[in-house]
Request: fold
Amino acid sequence: MAGVTHRRFSRLGPNLVIIGCALFFVLPLISLARFAFQNVPTVNLGWSTLFDKWSFQGISNAFNEPGFGDALTLSLKLMVGTVVLTLALLLPTAIWVHLRIPKARPFVEFLTLLPYVIPAIALVAGVMVVRDHARWFLNSELSLIPFYVVLALPFTYRSIDAGIRAIDLNTLVDASRSLGAGWGTTLRRALIPNLRASIISSSFLTAAVVLGEYTMANVLLKFTLQPFLFEYRSHDPQGGYALALLVMLATTLLFALLSVLTRPRGRKGTDKMVTEAMAGAAASPATGAA
Reply:
């Protein structure tokens, strides 16, 4: 009896922490939702007006605001471009470091942490110094992509690195190469299927960074979603905060989808995936042969 009581009290502490954290994040969002979607003066918001005059007029006005479509389109272009460039650079680099120069991993990890240490405004200040010599590049609306790749490095590299450490990389590469597959085929048919979860994680984390970034876009005069929100809130706070809440919810749904898509497979599923990868590599040994 005493043991059962002890176990119940031992679970009470962690549960209280989880409930406290949930309230810490949820209550401000509820307040924001009430301000954004209730046509009630702020001073009158309270328990008595909880169900009064809810409306989606604010978000409708935001969608119809001139410039919203262009800002959203540019953010989506930057998101796709950043995800593609990040994977194209980091995936082969991380694999090569693990295979050929494993002693350099601590140094590579240190480099990927630098965006944490150096704030975005400092990076932009450095770009502004050389702006006159690179106008042909900075004038492009897609010039933010390399900078976003740098900003996302602390998240994306660790996601890919964790995925590589979770598989037997050397065995997969040696087996694929012994079957006659080149490096391109090995990467496409043997490694990428086994790194699916980390690739999805890296892509979603990069998307979240791009959708939420404001400093670089504003200083470099790129009218992405966040600068649009900042400007729109100045003359329509309700619609601006409604749109900001929608963007936040969309990002949250991305991470919820991430948790579903990266759910660990069973042992049989993993073995089957490895077998299929090896069979695929053997089926086209000449493709990408070195």
About this structure: The chain has two domains: 1-41, 65-283.
